[in-house]
Design brief:
Chain A has two domains: 207 residues, Rossmann fold, CATH 3.40.50; 69 residues, 2-Layer Sandwich (Alpha-Beta Plaits). Chain A is 37% helix and 28% strand. Chain B has one domain. In chain B, 72% of the residues lie in helices and 0% in strands. Chain B is built from twelve helices and no strands. With 265 residues, chain B is mainly α. The chains are: A alpha/beta (314), B mainly alpha (265). The interface between A and B is medium-sized, with 31 and 23 residues.
Chain lengths: 314, 265
């Protein structure tokens, strides 16, 4: 199987003392949106810089669509768009001038460049700024412009390194919306971030990195399932009577019932199938259910448990 | 073989794109218009005192050209390499399907072309002035030789500043160091050597005297870094001087390219 992005035992050493990456192997399928998570200094940006040809690995290989980035960067990077850290901007140029240059670098024709500039600037809501100097843009606008540059040539793969760093809430919302759109269009996205909420919201899979090593890797779905506590919070339209509470207790899958006014916490075995059955029974009963929520820990808790396991191992 | 020729074609195309982009940047940052305006305005100042012959006038006007070439090299090559790393525009520019060496070669060529344009404008204005003051027939025949020498010196100056741009981390440092190296340090070394009766034949600013020396007249205003100091008898040999300029151009460019290629973000 050809992966969109693949790394084999990547190692990056600086001098003799510091190892930024220590045998990182990644397999990212086409169309996947993968979150690359870890504390500051874990090696996320180093991995991304190797994937985009900015750094050479001390050993190991990085492939984009099966092409070795170090051996053939020109071909490998043709199908990749990248936003790395907070890049500087050519303040004295306009988006049109800057994107025209990059369009030519990607061997696009003049008509195609003009069409894509219009499309991408519209996508990042900068159409009206096409011929204004970039130096007059806000931080959020500049970041959106760098995303426009990354997708100008309609890449198959997009690598984003901390794309919302330094943005205000509105800018964060805009960038997340764009990533969701790319995901829906079937683009492979490799998203490095230390904001777990962002990763949980937009990614299918998460890779956890610590001290240059992959410490865990799983789909968001299975991480979420593993985090479920076996408790559902149910809100009813009105406070439950004693009879209705007994009715709840009678449901065989429910192990415990804790009622307070019009809400109840129902204990069960934690299996998703059981949760579905309980919901069905509640809906078919006379109890008016307003909301039904399976309790679970956030990705933050999982992150802390993974990182602390690693600490213990060390 | 076919793969190699395609790779060379790609390198040439990418270098061409880089040259074009750099020239657009020099224009948009108003550096090119400013230095070009200097090249047009400065010769006009020499109307203040008009010598008797066209040769003397040309030598007087060209005595400022050394400084203009150094200013031009510092302006166009000073941030060619380090500027991309310092301002982090490298994070936009490098993760693209083009070779870094092609980008850096393009930056050098753009700086060179911009400096050539400035030199060309300077000679053009000076030639027009000479024609207006002394008539077309009085224009020194050695002017073409002087022009070619100025172009070769431009390549040497651009290479020296380009080398500092690759070596140092900050644009302001590389621009100032490059400027001072050509403008002060090398002429001071030349002066010291001449004081101890040694010909500084290997110093490029000494070789730059050829720009006016080839005209075969005296009378230049001592404003340039390579201008003769009173009481000194050395005059650069044309062949040696040109060879020294070419050597500085090649060594500066090659070492600059090697260092630039090894720089990491």
């Amino acid at each position: 199987m050809e992966y969109a992005i693949r790394t084999e035992s990547l190692v990056k050493r600086y001098g003799k003392g510091f190892t930024a990456l220590d045998g990182v192997s990644l397999l990212i399928k086409k169309g996947e949106v993968v979150g690359y998570v870890g504390p500051n200094g874990a090696g996320k940006t180093t991995t991304i810089k190797i994937l985009t040809g900015l750094l050479k690995p001390s050993s190991g290989h990085a492939y984009v669509n099966g092409i070795d980035v170090t051996a053939n960067p020109r071909k490998a990077l043709q199908t990749m768009g990248a936003l790395i850290e907070v890049p500087g901007m050519y303040d004295y140029l306009t988006p049109h001038e800057m994107l025209t240059y990059f369009g030519k670098v990607y061997r696009m024709g003049s008509n195609e460049i003009d069409r894509r500039i219009k499309e991408t600037l519209q996508l990042v809501r900068l159409s009206e700024w096409e011929h204004k100097k970039i130096g007059t843009f806000s931080t959020g606008m500049q970041r959106r412009l760098t995303i426009a540059k990354a997708i100008l040539h309609e890449p198959d793969n997009l690598v984003l390194d901390e794309p919302v760093l330094g943005l205000d809430p509105e800018g964060i919302r805009d960038v997340r919306g764009l990533i969701r759109q790319f995901r829906n269009e079937g683009m492979t996205v490799f998203l490095s971030s230390h904001l777990l909420g962002e990763v949980a919201e937009v990614c299918n899979t998460v890779v956890f990195l610590n001290k240059g090593k992959v410490v865990s890797s799983d789909s968001i779905e299975s991480i979420s399932s593993s985090l479920e506590h076996g408790v559902v919070d149910v809100k009813f339209l009105r406070p439950l009577s004693g009879e209705e509470i007994e009715e709840l207790r009678a449901i065989e899958l429910i192990r415990s019932v804790d009622v307070k006014d019009n809400t109840a916490q129902l204990g069960y075995d934690g299996k998703p199938e059981s949760s579905v059955q309980i919901l069905r029974r509640l809906v078919s009963s006379n109890l008016d259910v307003v909301s039904y929520h399976v309790e679970g820990s956030g990705l933050e808790d999982y992150y802390i448990s993974v990182m602390s396991d690693e600490k213990g191992a060390n | 073989m076919a793969i190699r020729s395609e790779s060379i074609r790609n390198d040439i195309f990418e270098t061409y794109l880089s040259v074009k982009f750099e020239l657009v940047k020099h224009l948009k940052r108003r550096r090119l218009p400013i230095v070009a305006a200097l090249a047009v305005i400065v010769p006009l100042i020499f109307y203040v005192s008009v010598p008797d012959t066209a040769g003397e006038f040309a030598a007087t006007v060209l005595s400022f050209l050394n400084i203009l070439i150094i200013i031009s090299a510092a302006m166009f090559a000073g941030d060619a390499v380090c500027g991309e790393f310092e301002k982090k525009t490298s994070l936009l520019l490098f993760p693209t399907p083009q070779r870094r060496s092609a980008i850096f070669a393009g930056k050098y060529v753009a700086a060179l072309l911009a400096t050539f344009l400035v030199v060309f404008l300077y000679y053009l204005v000076m030639t027009l002035q000479t024609t207006q003051l002394y008539g077309w027939g009085q224009i020194p025949t050695e002017l073409a030789k002087s022009f070619l020498t100025a172009l070769i010196y431009s390549a040497a100056a651009v290479s020296v500043v380009y080398f500092f741009s690759a070596l140092l981390k900050r644009s302001i440092s590389s621009t100032i160091v490059g400027f001072l190296f050509l403008m002060m340090i090398l002429p001071i070394v030349s002066l010291i050597l001449m004081r101890v009766n040694q010909e500084p034949w290997f110093i490029v600013s000494y070789s730059a005297n050829l720009i006016t020396d080839v005209l075969g007249v005296s009378g230049g205003v001592p404003t340039g870094p390579g201008e003769h100091f009173p009481g000194q008898n050395f005059t650069p040999d044309f062949g040696v001087g040109i060879a020294v300029m070419i050597a500085y151009a090649i060594v500066g460019l090659v070492s600059g390219m090697v260092i630039a290629g090894r720089k990491e973000d």
